[in-house]
Design goal:
Layout lengths: L8 E4 L5 H12 L3 E6 L3 H14 L2 E6 L5 H15 L4 E4 L14 H28 L5 E5 L12 H21 L5 E7 L8 H5 L1 H8 L10 H12 L10 E4 L15
Bound molecules: nicotinamide-adenine-dinucleotide.
Nicotinamide-adenine-dinucleotide binds next to helix 1.
C-alpha cells in the first residue's frame, strides 16, 4: 500500500468492468476517492463503486463518452463537485474491432481511433489544463497495450491507436515534466477481462495465447492495477514517459524462448 495516495482523487475512465474496475478497487484499498466513468454499463460501474467503498475508499459513478470533450469535462466536474480536487487521471477506456484491414470500414476505424486515441488525448488535455491552472503536480496514466510495440494483423485500428498513445504519452511527459506533472503508460499483455471473454472461452485460442507468454499464463486485472497504483504513487516519483509493460514477458519475442533463431 502507498500511504501518500490516501485521500487523493482519481478519475478512471471505462471503470465498469475489467482492468478499470480492478484499478478502481485498488485505489479504494489505497483509501482514494474515485470517479468511476462508464459509457453504458451503469450496473457494472455501480458494482465497482461498491467495491471501492468496501475497500475503504469513496466513489461516484459518472456516465460519459470519453471520445467527447463534454464527456471529459463532465468527469472533471464530478471530481471537483464530489471530492474537491483531482490528483490522478487514468485514461483506461478502450475497445477493439477485428477485421482484415482491406475490409475494415471507415466507421469502425473511426470508432477505435475515437475511443483508444482521441479519448486519451481529451482526458489528458482536460487533466493537464486543471493541473496547470492549479499549479498541481498531477499524474496521468494512459492504458496502452503490448500492441503499441507488437504488430497485430486484423487489428490495425487498435494497434495504430495504441502506437499513437505511446508517443503521445512520451511527448506530453516531456512537455509537462518541468511542471512536476508525470505521465506514463501501461502496456498490458493478455489479461483476463471481458474484452477477451469470447477468445478465452475457446480452449484452442486460450492455449494459443498462453503459448505467446513466456510466463505461461494469462494475467489478472489486479496485476495491472498494482502497476497503476505504483505509477500513481510517489514511489515512482522519478518515473515519467515510460510504458510499464505488465505482460508476463509477451514483449520479449517469445518465439525465441527455447533458443531458436
Ligand atoms: P473491457 O472491455 O473489459 O473494458 C473496457 C472499458 O472501456 C469498458 O468498461 C467499456 O465500457 C469502456 N469504454 C469503451 N468505450 C468507451 C467510451 N466511448 N467511453 C467510456 N468508456 C468506454 O476491457 P479491458 O480489458 O478492461 O481493457 C481496459 C484497457 O486495457 C483498454 O484500453 C484496453 O485496450 C487495454 N488493454 C487490455 C488488454 C487485455 O488483455 N485485457 C491488453 C492490452 C490492453
Amino acid at each position: 500500500m502507498y500511504t501518500d495516495l490516501n485521500n487523493k482523487v482519481a478519475i478512471i475512465t471505462g471503470g465498469s468492468k475489467g482492468i478499470g474496475t480492478a484499478i478502481s478497487k485498488r485505489f479504494g484499498q489505497e483509501k482514494m476517492s474515485v470517479v468511476i466513468n462508464y459509457n453504458s454499463d451503469e450496473k457494472g460501474a455501480q458494482n465497482a463503486a461498491d467495491e471501492v467503498k468496501q475497500a475503504g475508499g469513496q466513489a461516484v459513478i459518472v456516465q460519459a463518452n470519453v471520445a467527447t470533450e463534454e464527456g471529459n469535462q463532465k468527469l472533471l466536474q464530478a471530481a471537483l463537485d464530489n471530492f474537491g480536487d483531482l490528483d490522478v487521471w487514468v485514461n483506461n477506456a478502450g475497445m477493439e474491432i477485428k477485421s482484415a484491414t482491406h475490409e475494415l470500414s471507415l466507421d469502425d476505424w473511426n470508432k477505435m481511433i475515437a475511443v483508444d486515441q482521441t479519448g486519451v488525448f481529451l482526458g489528458s488535455k482536460t487533466a493537464l489544463a486543471y493541473f496547470k491552472k492549479n499549479n498541481k503536480k498531477g499524474n496521468i496514466i494512459n492504458m496502452s497495450s503490448v500492441h503499441e510495440q507488437i504488430p497485430w494483423p486484423t487489428f490495425a485500428g487498435y494497434a495504430a491507436a495504441k502506437g499513437g498513445v505511446k508517443l503521445f504519452t512520451k511527448t506530453i511527459a516531456m512537455e509537462y515534466a518541468k511542471d512536476g506533472i508525470r505521465v506514463n503508460a501501461i502496456g498490458p499483455g493478455a489479461i483476463n477481462t471481458p474484452i477477451n471473454a469470447k477468445k478465452f472461452a475457446d480452449k484452442e485460442q486460450y492455449d494459443q495465447t498462453v503459448s505467446m507468454v513466456p510466463m505461461d499464463r494469462i494475467g489478472d486485472p489486479e496485476e495491472v492495477a498494482a502497476g497503476a497504483a505504483w505509477l500513481a504513487s510517489s514511489e515512482s516519483s522519478y518515473v515519467t514517459g515510460i510504458t510499464l509493460f505488465i505482460d508476463g514477458g509477451m514483449t520479449l519475442y517469445p518465439a525465441f524462448k527455447d533458443g531458436q533463431g
